[in-house]
Specification:
Length: 389
């Protein structure tokens, strides 16, 4: 089998890249180790920057997001029992869309199927080969038979635990990492959101976040210990703890209900450099991970594949390698700014046991300055709505 671009991974990065390349007339195949249902079953992010929505529109997969997504003009930051609204639209003229990653993935899968493009699900033992040559290839096993795909380029969109980055010799890659001393316990419930916009709360008991998927489906997060086990958090305990961390007005409006999903995720900041190795490119979580506090993970996957698809379009249309030569530096410039912002939001809003009372006071001073300075709120807004591609 032969294709121009072999994409490893059918998450948001791989699927969006596949549709962008198709739009530009660049043939591609996606190899995904899980089933489509498994991929859709992952409950992940829910905030789309307008640049991400524009990319969905560009590939003809944005219609349902515009119909069902919620357009938000601001977020609320709470500390000391008081909520402060940050009007991001007033500061930037831009908005955010609340639309679950699951739905983005579903829409991209539908677009790919409608275009008759090949996605091999349950592709086992996927391996990139000879990406440091002009004749890269990818092998995989399916139904006990080993297959090989000859290609011009390989796109490693296989997430943090994927095979692509792991296939790069250690001497050719540098990684930068910070692991946070806590996790996020998340719950999904078929209940109306506690507030029309998101509420990020700094509390002495720990961080909490009130967000949503629609006007009837809510998502809540609590900072929890890395030692916590989901079995220790029955729904009642979750709701009781959330009420302890929310401001009085939020507690008054909170509608609790049975969880339809509950999980604990660790938080880390991670960047791999470079993001290009000969004819193999990394994109999305395969190259970087951000703590979800800044809602950047999905949106960075989108900007990566925007840069990569433009570079490949230039290669094939203009026979120029300028774009692919610049891909890593271009993508990393935006990645590192988003990594910084996500680290800053995480550092400001979470309880850090090792920084003690002094650290807690510094956080409150940062928050007090933030909500009293138009310059500070504009800076947060610029980063939250998404820096330019
Ligand atoms: N072979 C084939 N597929 C693989 C392999 C492999 N060896 N390893 C992983 N995959 C698949 C996974 O099953 C997954 O479907 O690659 C896909 C990677 O998708 P994501 O992990 O969602 O990463 P990405 O597409 O970059 O999207 C980033 O997802 O995890 C969230 O917070 C993150 O919102 C961000 C977004
Ligand atoms: C979500 O809706 O899941 C969400 C929103 C904002 C974040 C993180 C997660 O910062």
């Amino acid at each position: 089998m032969r294709t121009k671009v072999a994409i490893i991974g059918a998450g948001p990065a791989g699927l969006l890249l596949g549709q962008l390349l198709h739009t530009y007339g660049i043939d591609n195949i996606i190899l995904e180790r899980q089933t489509a249902d498994y991929v859709l079953g992952r409950i992940r992010a829910g905030v789309l920057e307008d640049g991400t929505v524009s990319l969905l529109d560009e590939v003809g997969a944005g219609e349902r997001a515009h119909r069902e997504g919620l357009v938000h003009h601001g977020v609320e930051i709470a500390f000391g029992g008081v909520r402060h609204r940050i009007d991001m639209h007033a500061a930037t003229g831009r908005t955010l869309m609340i639309y679950g990653q699951t739905e983005v993935t579903r829409d991209l899968m539908s677009a790919r199927a409608a275009a008759g493009l090949t996605t091999v699900y349950q592709a086992a033992d996927v391996k990139p080969h000879d990406f440091d040559s002009d004749t890269p290839r990818v092998s995989y096993a399916k139904d006990g038979i080993t297959h090989e795909i000859a290609c011009d380029f390989i796109a490693g969109c296989d997430g943090f635990h994927g095979v692509s980055r792991a296939s790069v010799p250690e001497s050719s890659i540098r990684t930068f990492e910070r692991v946070y001393p806590f996790g996020w316990l998340g719950i999904l419930s078929e209940t109306p959101p506690v507030s029309p916009e998101l509420i990020y709360t700094n509390h002495e008991r720990g961080f909490s976040l009130c967000t949503m998927r629609s006007t009837h489906r809510s998502r809540y997060y609590l900072q929890c210990s890395l030692d916590d086990d989901i079995g220790q958090w029955p729904d009642d305990r979750f709701w009781d703890e959330l009420k302890r961390r929310l401001d009085p007005r939020a507690v008054e409006h909170l509608v609790t209900g049975p969880s339809i999903e509950k999980s604990i995720a660790p938080l880390r900041s991670f960047v791999a450099e470079p993001m290009r190795f000969g004819r193999m490119f990394l994109a999305g979580d395969a190259a970087h991970i951000v703590p979800p506090t800044g809602a950047k993970g999905l949106n960075l996957a989108a900007s990566d594949v925007h840069y990569l698809s433009q570079a490949l379009r230039e290669f094939y249309a203009e026979k120029s390698a300028a774009g692919i030569d610049a891909y890593s530096a271009t993508a990393l410039a935006r990645v590192w700014k988003a990594v910084r912002f996500s680290w800053w939001m995480t550092s400001m809003l979470h309880k850090f046991p090792d920084t003690g009372e002094f650290g807690a006071r510094i956080q409150l001073a940062e928050l007090d300055y933030l909500v009293s300075s138009n310059a500070a709120m504009t800076s947060l807004s610029e980063n939250y709505v998404g820096l330019p591609f």
